[in-house]
Amino acid sequence: MTPQALADHIAARAARHEGRFIAALAGPPAAGKSTLAAELVARLGKGAKVVPMDGFHYDDAVLLARGARDRKGAPDTFDAQGFFHLLRRLRAEDEVAIPLFDRSLEISRAGADIIGPADKILIVEGNYLLLNEPPWPQALPLYDLTIWIDVPESDLIARLMHRWASYGKTEAQARAWIDGNDLPNIRRVVAGSGRADVVIS
To answer: Is the entire prediction scored with pTM above 0.90?
Structure first.
């Protein structure tokens, strides 16, 4: 399915839906979730917005205190309950402030964007939206459509090498971070996520 076909599918489903329509876009790290979410919103036009799960990263100070800084990005390094609460608010409230993760600063910025009354189609994107490990299945009833991006592991590694190089890591540093952090998360989410309504290859 092309991005345009997927946007058309979302629009058709949303037109038959009362209230906000929430599409969950899931996949492993570096699958292209943020890129596809932005493209879908551009194709859907006014009234569509992206809601990233990454705004719920725990701060590095919290992760250091918990001895989890070297596992940043793993499922337990996110405020999952805070994310679920946001989804419920998006169902019930006309205006909701959302946090966004600033990768250049490695911090989440609270209230960095606003979902307003005119925003009727939300593309929620993140690694663990379909993960079959507690507490993540709590969010499943809050999605109106689920989408999975399927990318070969070798392509994910190549993209991550490029990503970390762009943030100043040497090749050795990037490879060490991928092997110790990203790759376990990739394999965990690929093996442990439930079946989506739509799969994009």
So the answer is: yes
